[in-house]
């Protein structure tokens, strides 16, 4: 499906309103992608989180669709807003985008949204993604983020989907060892991926509206 610029479908305002937020110190998509929001002591955390939470609560489904139909910055931002507000109606759309892996960077945000939804259906989507992409030892897509989200869901649901991938010399180890720049890297362990997912979700839990 070809990408559509939001202005082509009557939503020209959504990029500046939600993605770049030009009245902010830095574009929102950049802050989300850099993980700066998770750094202790970041002085703008409260203001950033408040604005993110407000937008997640008020953005319309049509505006979210306009963002999801465009490029990676808008998709990343949309997935974060969906995850923060737990818009489970977008589960199927998020699943399709994650499995297609059409653009860079946004996949981690899809995994965050699925972790926030927190159901068996979301664990099945993440399992299907890892089934498809962990055997691709030539690619670094969003395998780490998907595994971290799945481990969190396993702990929450009492399931064991991730065991299929994390057993010694299993698909996770094979994938990491095949990519020279990841091999022996301390960040690429299952426990570290779970930790990052927990940090993202705890951040959202701390600020999302109830």
Shape: globular
Total count of domains? 1
Query: So what's the oligomer here?
Result: single chain
Got a strand count? Answer: 0
Number of helices: 12
Largest sheet properties:
none
- Beta-strand share of residues: under 5%
Describe the structure.
The chain is 62% helix and 0% strand. With 210 residues, the protein is an all-alpha fold. It has one domain. The longest helix is centred in the C-terminal third of the chain and has 18 residues. It is globular. The termini are far apart. The mean pLDDT is 91.
Quick tags:
mainly alpha; globular; 210 residues
How do the helices and strands line up, and which of them pair or pack?
Blueprint: H1 14-20, H2 28-34, H3 45-58, H4 61-68, H5 72-85, H6 91-100, H7 107-117, H8 120-133, H9 143-157, H10 163-166, H11 171-178, H12 190-207
């Amino acid at each position: 499906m070809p990408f559509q610029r939001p202005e082509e479908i009557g939503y020209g305002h959504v990029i500046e309103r939600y993605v770049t937020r030009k009245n902010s110190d830095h574009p929102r998509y950049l802050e989300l992608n850099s993980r700066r929001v998770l750094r202790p002591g970041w002085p703008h955390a409260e203001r950033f989180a408040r604005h993110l939470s407000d937008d997640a609560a008020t953005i319309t489904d049509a505006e979210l669709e306009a963002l999801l139909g465009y490029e990676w910055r808008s998709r990343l931002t949309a997935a974060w807003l969906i995850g923060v507000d737990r818009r489970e109606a977008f589960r199927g759309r998020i699943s399709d985008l994650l499995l297609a892996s059409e653009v860079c960077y946004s996949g981690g945000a899809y995994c965050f949204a699925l972790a926030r939804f927190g159901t068996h259906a979301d664990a099945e989507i993440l399992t299907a993604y890892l089934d498809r992409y962990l055997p691709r030892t030539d690619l670094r897509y969003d395998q780490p983020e998907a595994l971290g989200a799945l481990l969190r869901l396993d702990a929450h649901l009492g399931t064991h989907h991730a065991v299929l991938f994390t057993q010694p010399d299993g698909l996770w180890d094979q994938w990491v060892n095949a990519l020279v720049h990841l091999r022996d890297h301390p960040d690429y362990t299952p426990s570290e991926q779970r930790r990052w997912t927990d940090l993202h979700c705890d951040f959202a839990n701390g600020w999302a509206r109830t």
